[in-house]
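Researcher: For the annotation table, I need structure tokens for ABC-type polar-amino-acid transporter. Please keep the output clean. Sequence:
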Amino acid sequence: MVQAIDVHKFFDELHVLKGINLTIERGEVAVLLGPSGSGKSTLIRCINELEQISAGRMYVDGDLMGLREENGRLYRLSDKAIAKQRSRIGMVFQRFNLFPHMTALENVMEAPRQVLGMTKAEAEADAREQLERVGLSDRADHYPSQLSGGQQQRVAIARALAMKPELMLFDEPTSALDPELVGEVLQVMKDLAASGMTMIVVTHEVGFAREVADKVVFMDDGVIVEAGVPADVIGNPQEDRTREFFAKVL
Ligand code: ADP
Ligand code: MG
């Protein structure tokens, strides 16, 4: 579903991704761990073209992201073509960014109406299903200000799912939440993983990684230091940098 081949990213002089090679199979859940500043957010933003890579190739479901190859030369895709590629990828951020003047239901209906061109009735029926999936059927008519942080984040997940993504990216989805609200969001993500969704999750929740990840990817300073099943990478790390990281966070 995702293949990164020797991906580099520079912000001016700053070399942030230094040759990332990563393969995520359909249905896999990958958890990306690593110290702050190691490039985790940049990597997932490069997967859905929120950032342009500086070198290498990024494929999602076989599609070269952001670029078109013709006679051995690369051309940047149009904004419209990039938006189309991006529409197959759901993204959930630390900050939920719901529209404050819309109810939970209206927030979930908005993109399918605007982007997929669903009728109001179709979008509403589907949005109610997505809200049920995240356990918020009874909050459909509430505004974001009337919902807890955990509930707002679950609405954000429902909103992403309403676009029928093939891949879901999460960037520290629980980091802004009060501790007692973290569990309900992780539970929704576990259910989503169990339903077969392909997911890449940046999180500091090592318990979630152990329990849910098929693959744990440990990054430091723009490189993948170690990747594999949780029992190996978390339970029996081979590299000093990985050992030091888990010694601090566990
Ligand atoms: P992480 O998510 O692992 O904490 P990031 O991907 O956010 O790391 O950041 C990696 C590095 O790239 C950091 O040094 C950060 O300051 C830098 N960086 C991230 N985004 C930008 C940007 N838009 N412009 C310049 N530097 C950036
Ligand atoms: Mg980050």
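Researcher: And a one-line annotation?
Model: Residues 8 and 199 are 22 Å apart (CA to CA).
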